Amino acid sequence: MGVNRMIPVGDVEDQVAILVDDVTDTCSTKYCAAVKLLYARATKVYAIFTHEIFSGPAISGIYNAASEAVDDTNTIPQEDKMKHCSKIPVIDISVVLAETIQRADSSK
User: Fold this and answer.
1) Structural domain tally of the chain?
2) CATH number at residue 51
3) 2: pLDDT strictly greater than 60
């Protein structure tokens, strides 16, 4: 399915919309989805990604995008990109990873 045929599932009018994805590179599909959600009358759009590459026009796109913020985890260092765009808060997942490793190790 192409991005142009993307439609929101459910009623987003007067709601805060959240886009969730595992990996993002240029964020172009996410920008289109954010625009579609705002066109469907969502009040705000936030995006959350697990592994973000942010190549090419991604940072300028995020800065100028319709979404309020693009939260990402610290699985890939983003400090240099965060300096250029205040819309990239980072969620530290080191505690979750440490707990997962500890539980996996203790089950042996």
Assistant:
1) 1
2) 3.40.50.2020
3) no
